[in-house]
Amino acid sequence: MSDEREDLLRSARQLVETDILLGGDLIPAVRNPLPAPQAPASIPSGSGENRNSPSAAPPRWGTLPPLDLESLPQTPADKAAALEALRETCMKCCCCGLGKTRTNLVFGEGSPTAQLAFVGEAPGEDEDRTGRPFVGRAGQKLTEMIVAMGLRREDVYICNMLRCRPPNNRAPAPQEVQACWPFLIRTLQVIRPKVMVTLGNPATQNLLQTTTGITRLRGQWQKLPDHAPGLVGIPVMPTFHPSYLIRSYTPENRRNVWNDLQKVMELLGLAPKK
Hints:
By secondary structure, this protein is α/β, with parallel strands linked by helices. The chain contains ten helices and six strands. It has helices spanning 3-22, 76-91, 98-101, 125-130, 137-148, 174-191, 201-208, 214-217, 242-247, 251-268, and strands at residues 109-110, 116-120, 157-160, 195-199, 222-223, 235-239.
């Protein structure tokens, strides 16, 4: 059987399983045609296969074995320790070439017990320079959004799909998203937020496994698919990326994002800031 046919069959199975899982609660969407994330067969040592070769699918889980619910950290101290250990593992990752071009790893920051997590696309120049997520102009806008919700950055968790900046802030390549996927999923497993906000198309489409655009999805509650134990069914609110608000700062876009955030606040029982 050809690799292309295997990919098509895998995608079909993913579509059926996802539809069964979601039970029709979400709006109709075209599912992501990429194969579902899964652990690859291990590469025998000495095989000579180049793990950074664009023609070779990068390991999806690398040194991160899957965790079941009983193995997930429960206490704040255990969660913080698990995130730090994951950061150390991420520092050594060589599943794509971005580790060689970055200035700093941009892992993520915030409370390990956060009820609310924001997930964006990838670090930019300011993030690469400082090693912190969302600290440039888009980061300032995100901070304004968080404060308007009556929270601080320290109260939530902020991260991106990618932990390294793509050169010249280009869009992440599919291989790079796949290589960083286990670190994103494990981070979310450790924190297990009550609610997630996806910022922009890439984060929304990958986490929800859909090709429907953010303009159609924003403002409508979604459910996180069963990416890993502890994550299935987490409410997800897609909204515009802060950088989009900066580029297209209109009263309508501002109102739309604020309406999205108010829905999150209502679910979390947060009172709007006066």
